[in-house]
Every structure is written in structure tokens, then in C-alpha cells.
Amino acid sequence: MTALLVIDMQAGLFRGTPARHDADGVVARINALAGAVRAKGWPLVFVQHEDDGGLAWASPEWQLLPALDVRPGDARVRKTACDSFYRSDLDGILRERGVHRLFVVGCATDFCVDTTIRAAASRDYEVIVVADGHTTKDRAHATAETIIAHHNWMWENLILPANPVRVLPAAELLEELSREGA
Predict the structure, then answer these.
(1) Cα(171)–Cα(182) distance, rounded to whole angstroms?
(2) Is 121 helix (H, G, I), strand (E, B) or coil?
(3) What distance in Å separates the CA atoms of residue 164 and residue 149, rounded to the nearest whole number?
(4) CA neighbor of 126 nearest in space, from 97, 165, 90
(5) For residue 6, how far is the Cα from the chain centroid?
(6) Which of 129, 134, 149, 152 is the most buried (most CB within 10 A)?
(7) Which residues are CB-neighbours of 145 under 8 A, at least 6 positions away?
(8) Is 154 exposed, middle or buried (0-12, 13-18, 19+ CB in 10 A)?
């Protein structure tokens, strides 16, 4: 079973400057993937970071972006660390649903997305990163585009002999899914 794992696409993380790179495009691609995943009967899991700073639980900042296609049956996971698995119920939710493959999207490429991808791979999940389905913002040392390109390259080149991470653009993944049986 496959699940779409959507990390930290929360209102408070998309406010302020600099802006998140290609935020509207990322949301549109996540929604397209959500439709394809739902059509196959696979689960969606939305992860939400919380802390005592700007992402207090249930605050307006903590809420998922209104433009995301979120449905009542979608799983939700609360987390307090960059690693979506760390002291959360994510692994239990995935195992309970028989998930062995994850499509990973979300925010922020260089923190929570990166850490979660590595944690998922180390737990033997088959990980497919959507190359244009994650975002970050410019940092003091690099542009968001550079950070995203670097991480896509890095994930694809991690040394995981039995379980390599794949990195695919959303259009290519959607095409692959259309050729797969349900």
C-alpha cells in the first residue's frame, strides 16, 4: 500500500518574507497527487508541526493551508520535531494501514522534509520524493531553488543499497500512476 505524506503545509509557515518558493505550484501538484492517490484508495497523511512559538496547536498558524485538498477521512499526525516519526504516531498509522511506500511532499525541504525522508528510509519504507512537491524559502547562504535542487540530488544519491530513494517530478509520478493498476 502507498500513502501520500504531506509535511507541514501549514498557514503560519507560509506567511512573512522571504516567501516559500513556488508555493502555489507546490500546492497544486500536491492536490493533483492527492486526487490520484485517493482514486487508488490509498491513504493521505497530513503532518502538522507544533511548538510554543508560532505554531501552537489548533491556532490559525497551525492549520493546514486552505488551498490544500484535505478530506475528513485523511489521517492527521501532530509532531514537535523535524522528524515526522519522532515521538509521533506516524509509524503506527502507516503500519496499521499496511503502507510500505511513501510519496513525500511538503515544507520545509531543508528541515522537516529532509529529516522525515531519511527517517522513513531507515525504517525500510520505499520513499519516492516528489521533486517539485516540496518547498522552502531563501536562506542566508542559498536560494530556495538551490536548496531544493541540492536536496533532490542528495536524496537520489543516498547510499541505501536495498532501498534507494527515488526522486520524480509530479507529472512523471502521475503518469507512472496512470499506468499502474489500482
Answers:
(1) 18
(2) helix
(3) 18
(4) 165
(5) 4
(6) 134
(7) 21
(8) middle
Decide: 54 and 61 in contact? Cβ < 8 Å. Answer: yes
Residue 161 above 90 pLDDT?
Answer: no
- Set of cell numbers at residue 117: 525522508
Matching residue, cell 542559498: 142
- For residue 32, which of 69, 7, 60, 63 has the smallest C-alpha distance? 69
pTM (2 d.p.): 0.97
Percent helix, strand and coil across the chain, each to the nearest 5: 35, 25, 40
Tell the burial category of 182 from Cβ atoms under 10 Å away from its Cβ (0-12, 13-18, 19+). Answer: exposed
**Cell (9 digits) for 142:** 542559498
Q: Whole-angstrom Cα distance, residue 101 to residue 1?
A: 6
Mean pLDDT computed over 127-156: 97
Nearest to 93 by CA among 107, 80, 74: 74
* pLDDT per residue as tens digits for the range 83-117: 999 999 999 999 999 999 999 999 999 999 999 99
Q: Compute the distance between CA of residue 105 and CA of residue 99 in angstroms, rounded to an integer.
A: 16
